[in-house]
Amino acid sequence: MTATRELRYHVMAGWEQLPAGFTHLDCVGVGVDSRDTVYLLTRDQPRVLVYRPDGTFVRSWGEDLFTPRTHGLTVAPDDSVYCVDEGNHCVYRFSPTGEVLQTIGRPGVAADTGYDGRSLESIRGGPPFNRPTNLAVAPGGDLYLTDGYGNCKVHRFSAAGELLQSWGAPGSGPGQFHLPHGVAVAADGRVLVADRENDRLQFFSPDGAFLGQWTDVQRPTNVALDGAGRVYVAELWWRVGQRSPVHGEITTDRPGRVSIFDPEGRVLARWGGPDRCAPGNFVAPHDLCVDSRGDLYVAEVTHTFAGRAGLAPPDCHTFQKFIRQA
Length: 326
Fold this sequence. Notes:
By secondary structure, this protein is mainly beta. It is built from one helix and 26 strands.
């Protein structure tokens, strides 16, 4: 399942003990808290599902709040939970039991960015938010948000929700974005942005100065880091006939995958294959996180990306746990 011997994993079938009557055709976000409690953000039935480390269901919340277009989940160092609601153009901060503590953005109000509702090429850029995607918490408490489907920006906020700065423009040059989809902040304050349609990770200083990029990634949807500085990347499927802004027409099938890098960008592990619904492979990796033991959780937007087009069966996985072996 892995590309090298440094890291090995096996998929743990049957981990999630989903309650009767609950479904998730898409899992858009996943995070773990200081006790390795797992928080899973879903669509179809939009809600947050909470599990113990052994997969036992604890509770759910958010059913009366979220739109059908939930998008990202981040557990902060204080164990509060941020959820990005792309359909409502805002971000909510919750207590671990689901009480709303803070709202950033104006629910239901999209910023004027030029986006015509159909094409990313219509975007000229603007203030927060127009279909935001993900959030990361910096070591000092600042919040970084990717504003991706209807904008082309990274926004930096204070912990109190005050907008401090924004950067980005449409394009494929340094500091430009073609769907900024995911974000993480390293221990040294560097900001990593998953620039999805440009097939790259971009690295920035805390105030948005471009530092460099990694291009050995494929449609990165989100990125996570562990305590050793390893970088985990969820990577989306390129189908034959699609077109990459960077690489042009896709002529060979490139299955969705997960890649793990050391801090210098060397691949430590990489897996995913054409038998997309087989345990351990992927249809549409959308988010991932790592717990204190090094185990990996991967959330997929299986229905949105493949199921509704008849490219994946209804029983194909949308969430998998991988146990670290070495």
